Amino acid sequence: MSLNNSLKNNKFLQFIIVFLVFLQISMSEAVSWEFNFKFDNLFPIEVNNKWGYINSKGEIVIEPKYQAAYRFTDDLGLVKMDGKWGYINVGNKFIIAPIHKEAHQFSEGLALVKIGERYGFINKAGQLFIKPRFDDAYGFSQGLSSVKYKSLWGFIDLNGDFIIPPTFDFATSFSENYALVIKGGLTGFIRKDGSYLVQPVFDSAKGFSQGFASVVFEGQPAFINKNGQMIITPTASEVEHFSEGMAVVKMKDLYGYIDIKGKLVIPHRYHKSGSFSEGFAAVKYQGKWGFINKEGKVTISFKFKTVTPFKDGLSIVEFFDGNWGYINKNGEIVWSSD
């Protein structure tokens, strides 16, 4: 989880990593980028090579003093100090001392840590709850964690017991009660009891979102429902998962959006497109990124070098002058690195 040398000179990429790691946790439940917090959402910032946090108004609430910082999950923020990872509360007090060489954000009350050459889990008191015996692992989602044990992947419960034996070449977290698994180079889906919804027959696939999973079968993109039936076969060379009732589809190098009936509702006109999040989708046109709403109207003009989806009201953006920061849904700069 530590940042390598190539990233240390690119602060925007560091922010993207922070965002994507957090996003991976929130997406594992329903790929909807929704997450519940008891406190005001805090956003990591970097000032003079030190990391702290701002609130949604751009006000600094935790002064930058850490080597790295990640979004709060389960009311704890993952931060790095003196080369080790620990966890703070919103009052900037260490709840779990920085003692771990590698640690990940909390999910469902447990956090993945690496001890020696193996992965295990700690609880919110910092106690080792599941002994480190796995070659690799993902955070918990829907009560199960995907873990790699003796070169194969399976699933453990919150007590660390195998519920689904390690028999897969790869396995992702559960989403909407199904998990994507790979075996023999092909992709399928399993239920929480380990039985197959669909045997591994797909060239590739993405996890379930809003009742559908995007798949590629014999080179053709499509969607399956929770009965394993292929029900939407759009004319497209590439499809993404559904989010907020729409999915990105690519046709002749341009991107548009379909609804859950497979109808094209936003024409193919963009050079890159992201999934909808909080009512907005990031789209790229003539080399610049902006945002559209669900009617396809441009709400934030094309002026950014890179952007992330909105999360808790803010998007991380990179400007063409090399600076970066956060904007709100009005396109206003809330915080900037300049």
Concise structural overview:
By secondary structure, the protein is mainly β.
Radius of gyration: 20 Å
Kindly state the number of beta strands.
35
What is the beta-strand fraction? over 45%
Share of helical residues:
under 10%
Major sheet: 4 strands, antiparallel
Tally of alpha and pi helices = 2
Task: Specify the overall morphology.
Answer: flat
For the biggest β-sheet, the strand order reads 4-5-6-7
User: Distance N terminus to C terminus?
Assistant: 26 Å
Uncertain runs with pLDDT below 50, 5 residues or more? 1-9, 20-40
In quaternary terms, these chains amount to: single chain
Estimate the mean pLDDT confidence.
90
| Alpha-beta classification | mainly beta
